[in-house]
Amino acid sequence: MLDQFDALLLARIQFGFTVAFHFLFPAVTIGLASYLAVLNFMWLWRRDEAYLQLWKFWVKPFAIVFAMGVVSGITMSYQFGTNWSVFSDRAGPVIGPLMAYEVLTAFFLEAGFLGIMLFGRDRVGETLHMIACLMVAVGTAISASWILSVNSWMHTPAGYTVSADGQYLPADWWAIIFNPSFLHRFAHTVTAAYLTTAFIVGGVGAWQLLRGRGANRAVKTMFSMAMWMAAIVTPVQIFLGDSHGLNTLEYQPVKVMAMEGHYQDHPEGAPLVLFGIPNDAERRVDYAVEIPKLSSLILTHSLDGPLKGLESVPEEDWPPVAIVFFAFRVMVGLGFLMLGVGVWSLWARWRGTLYTNTWLHRAAMVMGPSGLVAVLAGWITTEVGRQPYTVYGVLRTADSVSPVAAPAVGASLIAYIVIYFVVFGSGVWYVLRLLRQTPGPAEDDASDEPGPIRTAGITPTAQVAGRSAFKGGPAE
């Protein structure tokens, strides 16, 4: 049966499936790592038990999601050798060192301090533990920067030369790393991760409030912090998205044509298509709901700004228009819903009903997973919009695939689907179970419990007896 499918299509589906799974985990851990660092800092500064309770509540889901992100990233990277060996051979001299730098700097930094962050609160002192929290948060951001540099180079390649055998060789590392779309993509993606975390935290806090746990100060603090992030960061993200869109128009105009649904040229101003159904055969958007000239105003800052359409490009260079068109609208629509929740929370805060407005809580709970859907829609818009190229304008996807048979790719795809849903499904289920709990009182200091004996000459019996005597126990 698998012989009926094309190996290229199956390889694309497999990579899309695995990277979609993987992308969701860092989207959470990047934001959660910073959130945990802020919570720890607030606890050390104010000595408010609510912050410590929240840190202990969120650190377990963070650890599990972090582990799932590492595992999913490793399995995804193998496909560069199995399904995309031609791409790896051609582009390896450029992207290989960048991915190695991510491991040598960011991943080792995270791994080195993660254990101290998770288990060292009562063992290494408050200062070193705070440094560990910061290093893990910084490590996640550095990791994102290297990976997004690789991805951005594939969209806007720069700083390379081509060898006689067709390999892309680095000529200017600064131009490669800081390629034309890198800073825009980095700012937009990392901010999306922070928003994703904010709405997950806000959704959990809203659920706790709806369950009648409003008397818990930690729950109220959780919800309040998340709503501040929603109100402040969402407008910033919309601005960053607009900036990224203008950069895409400059370097990947065909992607913008697909996003906007512009089949025809618009020399005197293009409409903004709010909704419709792209029709490639007729080169139009059926049932289109449009606002005249608004697309030109957004993209050129002029109502009469001319915009090219897909008709100006050979059809073999078009991306899958319908996928890009709808994914872009899902991302933008969710962004404005996030903005609405943020503004609503400001109104409720001003009215003094932030913790009692059940309709706001219901909305925040429903919007809890919205960040995950939005980042996935944004990734689809970006990556499918790059087609039919792996390295935009340079290397086509059809020329990047390994010489493998469709049944081999299909069999591994089926294995990935089964294993991913079993392993990561179990992990997500356990995280959801953890989030059903309520942040409770801080646990007793670990130093009050019998533990490993580190000092020569002291036996466990003597140590326990000494502690019992100090506490007025049996040794008295």
UniProtKB/TrEMBL annotation:
Biological process annotations from GO: aerobic electron transport chain
Entry protein name: Cytochrome ubiquinol oxidase subunit I
TM helices/strands, residue ranges: 20-45, 57-78, 98-120, 127-148, 191-210, 222-240, 321-347, 359-380, 413-432
One GO term describing the cellular component: plasma membrane
Topological category with respect to the lipid bilayer: Multi-pass membrane protein
Record localization: Cell inner membrane; Cell membrane
Key words of the record: Cell membrane, Electron transport, Heme, Iron, Membrane, Metal-binding, Transmembrane, Transmembrane helix, Transport
Protein family: Belongs to the cytochrome ubiquinol oxidase subunit 1 family.
Alphabetized GO MF terms: electron transfer activity; heme binding; metal ion binding; oxidoreductase activity, acting on diphenols and related substances as donors, oxygen as acceptor
Keyword GTP-binding: no
Listed Pfam families: Cyt_bd_oxida_I
